[in-house]
Amino acid sequence: MKTVFTVLFVFISQIIVAQHVPLYVGSYTNTESEGIYYYSFNTNTGTLSNKKLAVKAENPSFITFSANKDFLYAVSESDKESTVASYAVTENGTLNLLNKVSSNGSGPCHIQLNQSSTKAVVSNYGGGTVSIYNLQKNGSFINAFQVVNNNIPGVPAHAHSGKFYNNELFVADLGRNFLSQYVEKDNTYVLKKNYMMAKKAGPRHFEISKNGSFIYVINELNSTITALKRVEDTYTEIQTISTLKDGFIGMNACADIHLSNNQQFLYGSNRGENTIVVYKRNLETGLLSKIQSIFVEGDWPRNFTLSPNGKFLLVANQRSNNISVYNVQKETGKLTFMYSEACVSPVCLLF
After folding, report:
1. Is the pTM of this model over 0.90?
2. Per the record's keyword annotation, is 4Fe-4S included, yes or no (predicted)?
Protein backbone atom coordinates (compact mmCIF):
# COMPACT_ATOMS: atom_id res chain seq x y z
CA MET A 1 0.00 0.00 0.00
CA LYS A 2 2.86 2.36 0.86
CA THR A 3 4.36 1.76 -2.59
CA VAL A 4 1.05 2.64 -4.27
CA PHE A 5 0.81 5.93 -2.35
CA THR A 6 4.43 6.75 -3.21
CA VAL A 7 3.82 6.17 -6.90
CA LEU A 8 0.60 8.22 -6.74
CA PHE A 9 2.40 11.08 -4.94
CA VAL A 10 5.17 11.15 -7.54
CA PHE A 11 2.61 11.10 -10.37
CA ILE A 12 0.62 13.99 -8.90
CA SER A 13 3.83 15.95 -8.24
CA GLN A 14 4.88 15.52 -11.87
CA ILE A 15 1.51 16.83 -13.04
CA ILE A 16 1.82 19.89 -10.80
CA VAL A 17 5.36 20.60 -12.01
CA ALA A 18 4.31 20.16 -15.65
CA GLN A 19 1.60 22.79 -15.18
CA HIS A 20 4.19 25.40 -14.22
CA VAL A 21 6.51 26.83 -16.86
CA PRO A 22 8.99 29.71 -16.62
CA LEU A 23 8.16 33.12 -18.07
CA TYR A 24 11.04 35.54 -18.55
CA VAL A 25 10.43 39.27 -18.84
CA GLY A 26 12.81 41.71 -20.53
CA SER A 27 12.54 45.32 -19.40
CA TYR A 28 13.89 48.84 -19.64
CA THR A 29 16.04 49.65 -16.62
CA ASN A 30 15.90 53.45 -16.66
CA THR A 31 13.53 53.47 -13.64
CA GLU A 32 13.14 50.76 -10.98
CA SER A 33 13.65 47.64 -13.06
CA GLU A 34 17.01 45.85 -12.75
CA GLY A 35 17.07 43.51 -15.74
CA ILE A 36 15.45 40.20 -16.73
CA TYR A 37 12.79 38.79 -14.41
CA TYR A 38 11.50 35.27 -13.85
CA TYR A 39 7.92 34.19 -13.15
CA SER A 40 6.32 30.79 -12.72
CA PHE A 41 3.27 30.52 -14.99
CA ASN A 42 0.50 27.99 -14.41
CA THR A 43 -0.59 26.74 -17.84
CA ASN A 44 -3.82 25.36 -16.36
CA THR A 45 -5.07 28.43 -14.47
CA GLY A 46 -3.12 31.22 -16.17
CA THR A 47 -1.69 32.58 -12.91
CA LEU A 48 1.74 34.16 -12.45
CA SER A 49 3.74 33.61 -9.26
CA ASN A 50 7.21 33.42 -7.69
CA LYS A 51 8.59 36.56 -9.31
CA LYS A 52 12.34 37.09 -8.92
CA LEU A 53 15.22 38.85 -10.64
CA ALA A 54 16.81 36.32 -12.98
CA VAL A 55 19.83 38.48 -13.78
CA LYS A 56 20.84 42.13 -13.63
CA ALA A 57 21.20 43.61 -17.11
CA GLU A 58 21.00 47.02 -18.77
CA ASN A 59 17.91 47.53 -20.94
CA PRO A 60 17.37 43.89 -22.03
CA SER A 61 14.53 44.95 -24.34
CA PHE A 62 14.33 41.72 -26.33
CA ILE A 63 15.11 38.16 -25.28
CA THR A 64 14.93 34.72 -26.89
CA PHE A 65 15.70 31.06 -26.12
CA SER A 66 17.82 28.39 -27.74
CA ALA A 67 15.75 25.48 -29.07
CA ASN A 68 16.38 23.36 -25.98
CA LYS A 69 15.85 26.36 -23.65
CA ASP A 70 19.18 25.75 -21.94
CA PHE A 71 20.37 29.19 -23.03
CA LEU A 72 18.77 32.63 -23.14
CA TYR A 73 19.93 35.52 -25.33
CA ALA A 74 19.31 39.23 -24.79
CA VAL A 75 20.05 42.54 -26.48
CA SER A 76 21.22 45.49 -24.40
CA GLU A 77 20.21 48.98 -25.52
CA SER A 78 22.99 50.78 -23.69
CA ASP A 79 23.98 54.41 -24.20
CA LYS A 80 27.62 53.44 -23.60
CA GLU A 81 27.98 50.21 -25.59
CA SER A 82 25.40 48.21 -27.54
CA THR A 83 25.85 44.50 -26.89
CA VAL A 84 24.17 41.11 -27.02
CA ALA A 85 24.57 38.59 -24.22
CA SER A 86 24.24 34.84 -23.79
CA TYR A 87 23.13 33.26 -20.52
CA ALA A 88 22.92 29.72 -19.16
CA VAL A 89 19.54 28.91 -17.58
CA THR A 90 19.95 27.40 -14.11
CA GLU A 91 17.68 24.87 -12.38
CA ASN A 92 16.15 27.56 -10.17
CA GLY A 93 15.42 29.85 -13.13
CA THR A 94 18.18 32.40 -12.64
CA LEU A 95 20.58 33.22 -15.48
CA ASN A 96 24.37 32.96 -15.54
CA LEU A 97 26.22 35.17 -18.00
CA LEU A 98 28.29 33.26 -20.57
CA ASN A 99 29.60 36.15 -22.66
CA LYS A 100 28.83 39.48 -24.31
CA VAL A 101 29.78 40.71 -27.77
CA SER A 102 29.20 43.89 -29.72
CA SER A 103 25.94 44.19 -31.64
CA ASN A 104 27.83 46.18 -34.32
CA GLY A 105 25.35 49.02 -34.26
CA SER A 106 23.44 51.25 -31.87
CA GLY A 107 20.05 50.38 -30.45
CA PRO A 108 19.87 46.58 -30.77
CA CYS A 109 16.15 45.81 -30.48
CA HIS A 110 15.64 42.20 -31.62
CA ILE A 111 17.44 38.85 -31.59
CA GLN A 112 16.41 35.49 -33.03
CA LEU A 113 18.08 32.09 -33.50
CA ASN A 114 17.83 29.58 -36.30
CA GLN A 115 16.06 26.26 -35.71
CA SER A 116 19.24 24.39 -34.76
CA SER A 117 20.41 27.22 -32.48
CA THR A 118 23.74 27.46 -34.29
CA LYS A 119 23.22 31.01 -35.58
CA ALA A 120 21.75 34.26 -34.26
CA VAL A 121 20.59 37.41 -36.03
CA VAL A 122 20.51 40.79 -34.26
CA SER A 123 18.71 43.88 -35.56
CA ASN A 124 20.14 47.29 -34.65
CA TYR A 125 17.43 49.92 -34.91
CA GLY A 126 19.62 52.95 -34.29
CA GLY A 127 22.57 51.89 -36.39
CA GLY A 128 20.46 50.26 -39.09
CA THR A 129 22.74 47.22 -39.26
CA VAL A 130 22.00 43.51 -39.03
CA SER A 131 24.60 41.26 -37.37
CA ILE A 132 24.76 37.50 -37.92
CA TYR A 133 26.64 35.27 -35.47
CA ASN A 134 27.69 31.66 -35.07
CA LEU A 135 26.98 30.17 -31.64
CA GLN A 136 29.21 27.71 -29.80
CA LYS A 137 27.91 24.44 -28.34
CA ASN A 138 28.18 25.91 -24.85
CA GLY A 139 25.71 28.64 -25.90
CA SER A 140 28.15 31.53 -26.11
CA PHE A 141 28.57 33.96 -29.00
CA ILE A 142 31.35 34.04 -31.55
CA ASN A 143 31.87 37.54 -32.96
CA ALA A 144 29.62 38.33 -35.94
CA PHE A 145 30.73 36.74 -39.20
CA GLN A 146 28.55 39.10 -41.27
CA VAL A 147 27.19 42.62 -40.76
CA VAL A 148 24.62 43.90 -43.25
CA ASN A 149 24.38 47.69 -43.57
CA ASN A 150 21.32 48.99 -45.43
CA ASN A 151 21.96 52.68 -44.75
CA ILE A 152 22.01 54.88 -47.83
CA PRO A 153 22.54 58.66 -48.10
CA GLY A 154 19.39 60.49 -47.05
CA VAL A 155 17.50 57.35 -46.01
CA PRO A 156 18.78 55.84 -42.74
CA ALA A 157 18.04 52.18 -42.17
CA HIS A 158 16.26 51.04 -39.00
CA ALA A 159 16.51 47.26 -38.83
CA HIS A 160 13.76 46.12 -36.47
CA SER A 161 13.57 42.32 -36.56
CA GLY A 162 15.06 39.29 -38.28
CA LYS A 163 14.11 35.62 -38.59
CA PHE A 164 15.62 32.51 -40.12
CA TYR A 165 13.51 30.10 -42.15
CA ASN A 166 15.39 27.01 -43.37
CA ASN A 167 18.34 28.40 -45.38
CA GLU A 168 16.77 31.85 -45.71
CA LEU A 169 16.91 34.97 -43.56
CA PHE A 170 14.23 37.68 -43.49
CA VAL A 171 14.73 41.17 -42.04
CA ALA A 172 12.18 43.96 -41.49
CA ASP A 173 13.67 47.44 -41.93
CA LEU A 174 11.41 50.25 -40.74
CA GLY A 175 13.68 53.01 -42.07
CA ARG A 176 14.07 51.63 -45.59
CA ASN A 177 10.43 50.46 -45.51
CA PHE A 178 10.98 46.91 -46.77
CA LEU A 179 11.18 43.27 -45.81
CA SER A 180 14.41 41.69 -47.08
CA GLN A 181 14.85 38.08 -48.13
CA TYR A 182 18.37 36.62 -47.99
CA VAL A 183 19.57 33.16 -49.04
CA GLU A 184 22.48 31.36 -47.38
CA LYS A 185 25.40 30.68 -49.71
CA ASP A 186 28.94 29.67 -48.68
CA ASN A 187 28.32 30.61 -45.03
CA THR A 188 27.10 34.08 -45.88
CA TYR A 189 23.67 35.56 -46.60
CA VAL A 190 23.08 37.01 -50.05
CA LEU A 191 20.21 39.41 -50.74
CA LYS A 192 17.55 37.86 -52.96
CA LYS A 193 14.85 40.54 -52.89
CA ASN A 194 13.47 43.52 -50.99
CA TYR A 195 9.69 43.63 -50.63
CA MET A 196 8.54 47.24 -50.38
CA MET A 197 5.67 48.12 -48.07
CA ALA A 198 3.19 50.94 -48.71
CA LYS A 199 4.64 54.45 -48.43
CA LYS A 200 5.49 55.30 -44.79
CA ALA A 201 4.21 51.91 -43.58
CA GLY A 202 7.24 51.14 -41.35
CA PRO A 203 7.58 47.32 -41.13
CA ARG A 204 8.46 46.29 -37.57
CA HIS A 205 7.89 42.61 -36.72
CA PHE A 206 6.60 39.70 -38.80
CA GLU A 207 5.40 36.11 -38.60
CA ILE A 208 6.14 33.30 -41.04
CA SER A 209 3.56 30.50 -41.36
CA LYS A 210 4.82 27.03 -40.42
CA ASN A 211 5.01 25.89 -44.04
CA GLY A 212 6.64 29.15 -45.18
CA SER A 213 3.83 29.90 -47.62
CA PHE A 214 2.83 33.20 -46.00
CA ILE A 215 4.51 36.07 -44.18
CA TYR A 216 2.57 38.63 -42.14
CA VAL A 217 4.28 41.99 -41.53
CA ILE A 218 2.99 44.42 -38.92
CA ASN A 219 3.64 48.02 -39.96
CA GLU A 220 4.33 50.40 -37.09
CA LEU A 221 3.75 53.74 -38.80
CA ASN A 222 0.52 53.26 -40.78
CA SER A 223 -1.12 50.68 -38.46
CA THR A 224 -1.55 47.86 -40.96
CA ILE A 225 -0.63 44.23 -41.51
CA THR A 226 0.67 43.22 -44.93
CA ALA A 227 0.25 39.60 -46.03
CA LEU A 228 2.74 38.10 -48.49
CA LYS A 229 2.29 34.78 -50.32
CA ARG A 230 5.14 32.60 -51.53
CA VAL A 231 5.22 32.12 -55.30
CA GLU A 232 8.00 29.66 -56.15
CA ASP A 233 11.04 31.15 -54.36
CA THR A 234 9.82 34.73 -53.82
CA TYR A 235 6.77 36.44 -52.29
CA THR A 236 3.98 38.64 -53.55
CA GLU A 237 1.63 40.92 -51.58
CA ILE A 238 -1.93 39.61 -51.34
CA GLN A 239 -3.48 41.89 -48.68
CA THR A 240 -2.96 44.91 -46.46
CA ILE A 241 -5.46 45.31 -43.62
CA SER A 242 -5.85 47.91 -40.86
CA THR A 243 -5.11 47.03 -37.22
CA LEU A 244 -7.37 49.79 -35.86
CA LYS A 245 -11.03 50.02 -34.98
CA ASP A 246 -13.22 51.75 -37.54
CA GLY A 247 -13.30 55.47 -36.80
CA PHE A 248 -10.29 55.51 -34.45
CA ILE A 249 -8.67 58.96 -34.38
CA GLY A 250 -5.36 59.52 -32.67
CA MET A 251 -1.72 58.50 -32.61
CA ASN A 252 -0.95 54.79 -32.93
CA ALA A 253 2.20 52.72 -33.38
CA CYS A 254 1.91 48.98 -33.99
CA ALA A 255 4.40 46.72 -32.22
CA ASP A 256 4.19 42.92 -32.08
CA ILE A 257 2.55 40.12 -34.08
CA HIS A 258 1.97 36.38 -33.45
CA LEU A 259 0.19 33.44 -35.06
CA SER A 260 -1.78 31.02 -32.90
CA ASN A 261 -0.39 27.50 -32.46
CA ASN A 262 -2.98 26.10 -34.88
CA GLN A 263 -2.24 28.91 -37.38
CA GLN A 264 -5.95 29.79 -37.59
CA PHE A 265 -5.67 33.18 -35.86
CA LEU A 266 -3.31 36.15 -36.00
CA TYR A 267 -2.80 38.72 -33.23
CA GLY A 268 -1.24 42.20 -33.30
CA SER A 269 -0.63 44.96 -30.75
CA ASN A 270 -1.56 48.63 -31.06
CA ARG A 271 0.28 51.23 -28.95
CA GLY A 272 -1.90 54.31 -28.72
CA GLU A 273 -5.24 52.65 -29.35
CA ASN A 274 -3.88 50.23 -26.72
CA THR A 275 -5.53 47.12 -28.07
CA ILE A 276 -4.82 43.62 -29.25
CA VAL A 277 -6.39 43.05 -32.67
CA VAL A 278 -7.49 39.52 -33.59
CA TYR A 279 -7.85 38.13 -37.11
CA LYS A 280 -9.32 34.91 -38.42
CA ARG A 281 -6.92 33.43 -40.99
CA ASN A 282 -7.93 31.45 -44.07
CA LEU A 283 -5.48 28.55 -44.05
CA GLU A 284 -5.69 28.06 -47.82
CA THR A 285 -5.62 31.63 -49.15
CA GLY A 286 -3.77 33.23 -46.24
CA LEU A 287 -6.22 36.14 -46.16
CA LEU A 288 -7.20 37.79 -42.88
CA SER A 289 -10.58 38.87 -41.46
CA LYS A 290 -10.69 41.11 -38.38
CA ILE A 291 -12.84 39.59 -35.62
CA GLN A 292 -11.92 41.46 -32.41
CA SER A 293 -10.15 44.46 -30.89
CA ILE A 294 -9.76 44.30 -27.11
CA PHE A 295 -8.32 46.83 -24.65
CA VAL A 296 -4.97 45.81 -23.14
CA GLU A 297 -5.94 47.04 -19.66
CA GLY A 298 -2.85 49.23 -19.70
CA ASP A 299 -0.75 51.59 -21.78
CA TRP A 300 1.71 50.95 -24.63
CA PRO A 301 1.62 47.19 -25.36
CA ARG A 302 5.11 46.78 -26.83
CA ASN A 303 5.20 42.98 -26.82
CA PHE A 304 2.91 40.03 -26.15
CA THR A 305 3.09 36.25 -26.25
CA LEU A 306 0.92 33.14 -26.28
CA SER A 307 1.38 30.47 -23.61
CA PRO A 308 2.94 27.19 -24.85
CA ASN A 309 -0.44 25.42 -24.79
CA GLY A 310 -2.15 28.33 -26.59
CA LYS A 311 -4.75 28.80 -23.84
CA PHE A 312 -3.55 32.23 -22.70
CA LEU A 313 -2.19 35.46 -24.17
CA LEU A 314 -0.03 37.79 -22.08
CA VAL A 315 0.63 41.46 -22.89
CA ALA A 316 3.58 43.58 -21.71
CA ASN A 317 2.29 47.12 -21.14
CA GLN A 318 5.44 49.25 -20.98
CA ARG A 319 4.10 52.59 -19.76
CA SER A 320 1.49 51.35 -17.28
CA ASN A 321 3.93 48.86 -15.69
CA ASN A 322 1.77 45.76 -15.90
CA ILE A 323 1.29 42.43 -17.64
CA SER A 324 -2.28 41.69 -18.73
CA VAL A 325 -3.40 38.06 -18.97
CA TYR A 326 -6.18 36.88 -21.30
CA ASN A 327 -7.92 33.60 -21.88
CA VAL A 328 -7.92 32.47 -25.52
CA GLN A 329 -11.12 30.84 -26.77
CA LYS A 330 -9.91 27.79 -28.69
CA GLU A 331 -12.73 27.68 -31.25
CA THR A 332 -12.94 31.40 -32.05
CA GLY A 333 -9.49 32.73 -31.15
CA LYS A 334 -11.10 35.62 -29.27
CA LEU A 335 -9.70 36.98 -26.01
CA THR A 336 -11.27 37.46 -22.58
CA PHE A 337 -9.45 39.55 -19.98
CA MET A 338 -8.58 37.71 -16.76
CA TYR A 339 -6.32 39.87 -14.58
CA SER A 340 -3.35 42.24 -14.47
CA GLU A 341 0.05 41.67 -12.82
CA ALA A 342 2.22 44.60 -11.71
CA CYS A 343 5.64 44.67 -13.40
CA VAL A 344 7.99 47.63 -13.96
CA SER A 345 8.55 48.56 -17.61
CA PRO A 346 7.93 45.14 -19.19
CA VAL A 347 8.79 45.11 -22.90
CA CYS A 348 9.40 41.45 -23.86
CA LEU A 349 7.75 38.21 -22.69
CA LEU A 350 9.33 34.82 -23.30
CA PHE A 351 8.08 31.29 -22.59
Report:
1. yes
2. no
